[in-house]
Amino acid sequence: MEITQDKKELLKKGQRTAFAAAFFTLLLASLKGVTGYLFDSKILIADALHSGADLLAIFASGFGLWLAAKKKSARFPYGLFKAETLVTFVIGLLIVFAGAEILKDGYQKLFYIQEVRTFPFVPALASVVSVIAAFFIAKREKAVGRAINSQSLLANAQESFLDVFTSLIVLAGILLAFFRIPYIEGAVIIFVSLLILKLGVENVWTSLLVLMDANLNPELRQELEGKINEIYGVKGTSEVNIRQSGPFKMVECKIETSPTLPLYRAHELADKAEGAITKAYKDIESVFIHLEPARRKSVSAIMPVKDINGLDSRIHGHFGRAPYYIILRITEGGAEIEDFYYNEFLGEKRHIGIKVIKAVIKYKLDMLFTRQIGELSFYMLKDNFVDIYEVKEGLTVREAISQYRDDGLNKIATPSHTVEESQSADG
Predict the structure, then answer these.
(1) What's the gap between Cα 168 and its chain centre?
(2) What is the β-pairing status of strands 298-305 and 367-370?
(3) What is the tally of helices (H) and strands (E) in the chain?
(4) What is the enclosing helix (H) or strand (E) of 316?
(5) Closest residue by Cα to residue 152 from 95, 194, 197, 99
(6) Going edge to edge, which strands form the sheet with 324-331?
(7) Of the segments 189-198, 226-235, 352-361, which one has the largest average pLDDT value?
């Protein structure tokens, strides 16, 4: 599956955000570096180096999103989406490195106070500008990262939010140095450095899990299984696997369906399941459906009957005109009645069978036993993957089940009568 235009636009939006953030971070790093050098502010120079590490990480993120937007090729048939994940791994390493450097700087400042004779107005102003700019950069990265599900942009946003606090600590350090207050600056810097180290390690670990195709979202897996099982014709979901690939997910699932389902109908069912997933989850890039014949030990069946007498109820001669319907579960060892349905549409003149089907379709029926059935009802059941077997009028439900077990029933391949012939009722 080729990347859709919408997804290309999302990736381009991520690229633009990353490169814009890299440009403004470069300006901030230059501002702090030059100011720190001119005013001999060691802590401001250290903060500039930290911003330089951020600059590399943000630029790498944009580069990764640029690679992810490239077309698939014979060499890379699954695209380059994981380039973005690889970049997230590099970002994590850079964050760990930056955290370690800040930790060392904080430790040194526990025992050293720089003598400042004049109030550091310009260095303090540079830190304030850094705080404000980092906050807006972080907000933009977070918003776009969430919109396109970009791991690297979200990682950069977290780092940029930490930059806000780091710059505040730097500002506090500059002021504390002027007032010659010991220990506080170093202790707070150590605390922030530990938060940065934690963030870096989490990004490295998560990226490794993604690159190793670990299941990081069991809740989504359960959601997908439930959504697929709701599709009529699906007899069960045996396996759902989700692979994260950059900002997108790849889904592979095995679903069970009727062993008697024709090949073209099986393809229709697979397309229906694929469409249900991709329509509901925009971050899922591709879905691979593998169909298997159901090996279930029980099936759900419905029979039109004349009376309510358990398994001794007698088959009615017309599907739509039957006063009652018995819904049962047929197993290898017997049959269990699930419900009786009263035909509330008997007094109506048209399309009774269709209305009955709409009322009982919730039971996810596998089979219908009837003597005859109208055109519309026939095709509606076929569209919902229900097999239709012909039984004689007057047989008991028990006898019909016995004939089914002995392979004594024939499938109804065509409707018993057309819409024109039925006139007043479609059953």
Answers:
(1) 37
(2) parallel
(3) 12, 9
(4) none
(5) 95
(6) 335-342, 324-331, 298-305, 367-370, 387-390, 410-411
(7) 352-361
Q: Which residue has the tokens 């490239």?
A: 70
384: phi then psi, degrees, rounded to nearest 5: -100, 20
Render pLDDT for 222-235 as a digit per residue (tens, 0 to 9): 888 888 887 777 87
CA–CA separation, 52 vs 159, rounded Å?
Answer: 12
Whether 125 and 157 share a structural domain: yes
- Nearest CA among 324, 323, 318 for reference residue 421: 318
360 and 250 share one domain:
no
Is residue 166 over pLDDT 80?
Answer: no
Rg of the chain's alpha carbons, rounded to an integer? 34
Please give the backbone phi and psi of residue 150, each rounded to the nearest 5 degrees, phi first.
Answer: -90, 120
Question: Which two tokens mark 126?
Answer: 């540079």
Q: What is the pLDDT of residues 266-295, one digit of tens each?
A: 888 888 888 888 888 877 878 888 888 776
Angle between helices 218-229 and 263-280 (to 10 degrees): 130
Whether residues 313 and 411 fall in one domain? yes
Asked whether the beta carbons of 190 and 103 are under 8 A apart, the reply is yes
To the nearest 5 percent, what fractions of the chain are helix, strand and coil? 55, 15, 30
Average pLDDT over residues 140-155: 78
Is the entire prediction scored with pTM above 0.70?
A: no
Task: Identify whether residues 68 and 161 lie together within a single domain.
Answer: yes
**Per the structure block, which two tokens stand in for 362?**
């919730």
Query: Distance between CA atoms of 136 and 132, rounded to whole angstroms?
Result: 7
Which string of DSSP letters, residue by residue, matches 117-182?
-S--HHHHHHHHHHHHHHHHHHHHHHHHHHHHT-HHHHHHHHHHHHHHHHHHHHHHHHHHHHHT--
pLDDT bucket at 427, cuts 50 / 70 / 90 = very low
- What's the mean pLDDT in 300-321? 91
Whether 15 maps to a domain, the answer reads yes
Number of structural domains the chain divides into: 3
DSSP code of 246? T
> How long a stretch of residues is the chain?
427
Which amino acid appears at position 366 of this protein?
D
Bridge partner residues of 63 (DSSP): none
Structural domain contains residue 427: no
